[in-house]
Amino acid sequence: MNRNVVIAGQAGFSFGGFLFGQMARFGYNLFVARVLGADALGMYAIAFAVIQIAEVLAVAGLDSGILRFINVYSDDPGRQKKIIGSAVKTGLFFSCSVALLLLLFSGKISMVFNNSRLLQLMICCYAAAIPFNVVTLLFGHAIQGFQKLPPKIIATQVIAPLLLLLLTILFRYTAGHDAALLFPFVFAAIGSFFWIYPYLSKISGVVATDIFRARTDRVLLAYALPFMGVSLLSMMTHWLDIIMLGMLTDVATVGIYHPAARTAGLIRSVLLAFSGIAAPMIAELHAGSQNEEIGRIYRMVTRWIVVVIMPPVLFFMLFPELVLGLFGVRFAAGSTALMLLTASSFLLVCFGLSSTVLAMTGYSRLSFLNALAAFALQVALNFALIPRMGINGAALATLLVFLILSALRIFQIHHLLKISPFGKELLKPFASAVFTAVLLVAVRPWLLSLPLFTALSVGAVLSTGIYMALLLFLKLEQEEREIILKALPFINRKHGR
Question: What confidence score (pLDDT) does residue 115 get?
């Protein structure tokens, strides 16, 4: 099948799943902010950041290893099964070890922030979810290695966040405030694990006995461990603003900042959607030394990403007070932070595929050095800016890091692989975005005079409608027309094709 169609189809499903997951998490944050308060949201953000970082240690880069080696051994099903079994067994051992360490040191971790007994209990409860989350993630990547993305997306982006939201509402009104913060997270992890488990055997042929009898694959582990460093540093960079705000300020400040950070994070689902299906393709093409085709996919996917993210980027940056108004009047203080974080997400999403290209073409050590440099820079910037600017300092530090990191990765890929994400086709979405921004600025006073929900609805429709109309006026590229004709065969018949 044409790679354009595969990427578009799989990424479309993936994007839908990631969007659903992000909206469910947005709903969770909204519920916690409005019903449980800013302090509760701040404690959740800190506990979740700790668990996310711990899960990266537990995964140990095995997710990237599975993706690469399943495609490297595409003609050897027996070897593929051994790779999957070894990765899952190793990940299960690491995840149980990490969860135990968190249980032992939960008190000391909570002391770094606010020495809250509730925060300590949250870390303990969330730690119990780590083995389930890690194995679910490895199952999903194993299935994804066979270019079957839906099970992973449904488990991690539909079932887990939806259960988290629904169970939090249920526990809040049946068991109280603390129970709503403590228990839903682990039950959501268990639910997503049991949902995806049958698909592993169905798609890869791996069963439970293959996992328990598997031996440690040293080649897989040697490849995966550098990516643990990369992923760990990337995850710490992702959550560093939350962690350092918690250390340098208080949980209420974290609670005010968190909605802005997670709202801007909605944009990142687009990158995750496209990179998820592009990654195994790039690994397969690199194994065949097809750099020219890698470059074509790189440019095409970057253009599609830019096209998709422009409307929400414009809306978040031009109307931040409307977006954060959903959480309550108190959270409008994060408007400037939302603008800066949206710009950060824009850079990350536009040029983040370069990280996938480096990973899937064997440059794991270079990826690690990039992540290490970004982490060190963000630590320094946060120490310099947070005491002076508060949440805006944390947001500005994130923007500066992603600006430098994006430029560095683009230069490295151009130097090593002689490919670039840029092409003249990018002029159309950028030109459409500029004209849309001008029109939105003109109607901004009128929109701000409307009731909140009306203003949000009208603003979202205008941002998307004007942008898409301008983009269609400038005409679609050949790849987009091919995909539309493939997806809508009645158009082919209409034109006699």
Answer: 66
Into how many domains does the chain fold? 2
* Domain shared by 205 and 322, yes or no: yes
Q: Looking at residues 178-200, what average pLDDT do you find? A: 93
* Token pair listed for 283: 């690994």
CB atoms within 10 A of CB 176: 11
Please answer whether residues 351 and 421 qualify as being in contact, where contact means their C-beta atoms are separated by less than 8 angstroms: yes
> Is 496 within a domain?
no
For residues 338 and 442, membership in a common domain is answered with no
Return the closest-CA partner of residue 43 out of 238, 156, 160, 178: 178
DSSP 371-410: HHHHHHHHHHHHHHHHHHHTHHHHHHHHHHHHHHHHHHHH
The gap between the terminal CA atoms of the chain, to the nearest Å, is 18
234-244, pLDDT tens digit by residue?
A: 788 888 899 99
d(CA 381, CA 445): 35
Residues 6+ apart with CB under 8 A from 24: 158, 161, 162, 164, 165
Residue 494 lies inside a defined structural domain of this protein? no
Same domain for 336 and 430, yes or no, is no
Instruction: Give residue 495's pLDDT band: very low, low, confident or very high (50, 70, 90).
Output: very low
Residue 440 and residue 381 in one domain = no
Q: How many CB atoms lie within 10 A of CB 347?
A: 18
Is 495 contained in some domain?
no
- What Rg value do the Cα atoms of the chain yield, rounded? 22
| Under 8 Å between Cβ of 56 and 98 | no
Q: Which residues contact 276 (CB under 8 A, 6 or more apart)?
A: 10, 11, 14, 144, 149, 152, 153
Residue-range definition of the domain harbouring residue 38: 3-420
Q: How far is 145 from 143, CA to CA, in rounded Å?
A: 5
Does residue 15 sit within a domain? yes
Residues 413 and 313 in one domain: yes
Closest CA to 67 of 133, 11, 144: 144
Q: What is the largest CA-CA distance in the chain?
A: 71
**CA pair distance 99, 124, nearest whole angstrom:** 8
Task: State the DSSP code for 213.
Answer: T
CA 255 to chain CA centroid, nearest Å: 20
pLDDT one-digit tens code per residue, 210-247: 788 888 778 888 878 777 877 787 788 888 899 999 88
